[in-house]
Amino acid sequence: MAWIYLLLAGLFEVVWAIGLKYTEGFTRLWPTVGTVTAMVISIVLLAMAVKTLPIGTAYAIWTGIGAVGAVALGIVLFGDPATLPRLLCVALIVVGIVGLKFTASS
Q: Is 19 within 8 Å of 69 (Cβ atoms)?
């Protein structure tokens, strides 16, 4: 169950990372409410996951999911560059996430 919590925590991290763009510096009420809500949910789910998973593994995977998701949605939603070097770097993050998952002790 901890891995499911961690996956959901990472997905909510993507939500709040993208939500930051829509808050316009926390000046727009509803995007801010949604972003802060996603932040809280993400942290709570991460806290639930680290009850049984190693903190270093869980934190690295959580931030990795957030980073990969934010880059992917930045490309799709905001026209961020999708250059080969950027995509290769994202692929390295994915490899790291998968590696940590399969070498975790819990």
A: no
